[in-house]
Write a structure and sequence with these properties.
The complex is a heterodimer of chains A (103) and B (186). Chain A has 103 residues and is an all-alpha fold. Chain A has one domain: Orthogonal Bundle (Helix Hairpins). In chain A, 77% of the residues lie in helices and 0% in strands. In chain A, helix 2 runs antiparallel to helix 3. Chain B is mainly alpha-helical. The longest helix of chain B is centred in the first third of the chain and has 26 residues. Chain B is elongated and about 95 Å long. In chain B, 19% of the residues are buried. Classes of the chains: A mainly alpha (103), B mainly alpha (186). Chains A and B meet through helix 1, helix 2 and helix 3 of A and helix 1, helix 2, helix 3, helix 4 and helix 5 of B.
């Protein structure tokens, strides 16, 4: 069995994924939610490059990673503008303040 | 190999700090640091183009966006208790990580591709549709940036509930004479 020496990079991917998931669960600040999403996408990027490196198709993985970076940036832009507008209209960045539809 | 392990670990620590820290702008700075470390890691793993883009977009543009948004929205130091209990979120995260680790570790190197086309060829010929999608996404991003910049031209000066209540009151006032007429008739 040819175990790759790059296993610890996968541990890094898992670590970043864990931090992102944990951040999404604990944070209630809308801008922090975008930060947690960014961390998750960075983990995915590292995983893509790692997969390309292992399978020998580095350029394919680079091309996909560029697409992911573009999509991730747009997600950040739209998420942040939503957060800013919510702050303007509701006066807070708290996620819980969004749940108006109650009883 | 050791320096790559170190880079990955420090990037994870930076990401954790970005989540843990209280102030938003500090959080954005930690995120930029993690992004720069990951860009170095990408370079060491043989993906220099992605490293450059990650460094300029991930550590540069996104950080500027965060700083801009925080300066508009204002720093808000709230002591927000998480909705989930801390122990539950930690155990859920660990469970997810254990599952992912069990499925993916240990890695096995596949057979190396004999001849891989150049990056430009891959992007423009094999993944041409992706480029189109990226263009559409960038247009969407420009629209989103307009949303970030948009001043509140016609804001909800008062909440919707008050508006509805006021309208109902007007309608009741209009109904009032009619009901009085009915009472007189009776």
């Amino acid at each position: 069995m040819n175990v790759s020496g790059l296993n610890f990079i996968l541990v890094g991917v898992l670590g970043l994924l864990g931090v992102g998931l944990y951040g999404l669960m604990v944070t209630r600040n809308l801008i922090k939610v975008v930060v947690a999403l960014q961390i998750l996408v960075k983990a995915a990027l590292l995983g893509l490059i790692l997969a390309g490196n292992l399978s020998g198709a580095v350029n394919l993985s680079q091309s996909l990673a560029i697409t992911v970076i573009v999509a991730d940036t747009i997600v950040a832009v739209i998420g942040l503008s939503l957060a800013v507008q919510i702050r303007r209209h509701l006066g807070t960045l708290d996620v819980k303040a969004l749940s108006h539809l109650r009883g | 190999m050791l320096h790559m392990l170190l880079l990955a670990l420090v990037a994870v620590v930076f990401a954790l700090q970005a989540i843990k820290t209280e102030r938003l702008i500090t959080s954005a700075m930690w995120l930029a640091g993690a992004s720069a470390l990951l860009a170095t890691l990408f370079y060491l793993m043989g993906a220099p183009q992605v490293a450059v883009i990650e460094l300029s977009v991930g550590a540069g543009l996104v950080t500027v966006l965060f700083a801009f948004a925080i300066s508009i929205a204002g720093e808000e130091l709230l002591d927000l208790r998480p909705t989930l209990p801390q122990a539950l979120s930690i155990s859920l995260t660990l469970l997810a990580l254990a599952l992912m680790g069990a499925f993916s570790l240990p890695l096995q190197a596949g057979p190396a591709a004999a001849t891989e086309p150049a990056l430009t060829q891959v992007i423009w010929e094999q993944r041409g549709l992706d480029v189109l999608v990226q263009v559409v996404l960038i247009f969407a991003g420009v629209l989103g940036l307009l949303g970030l910049l948009a001043e509140a031209k016609a804001p909800l000066a008062y909440p919707v509930a008050e508006e509805v209540a006021a309208r109902r009151e007007r309608e009741l006032e209009e109904l009032q004479p009619a009901s009085e007429l009915v009472e007189e008739a009776v």
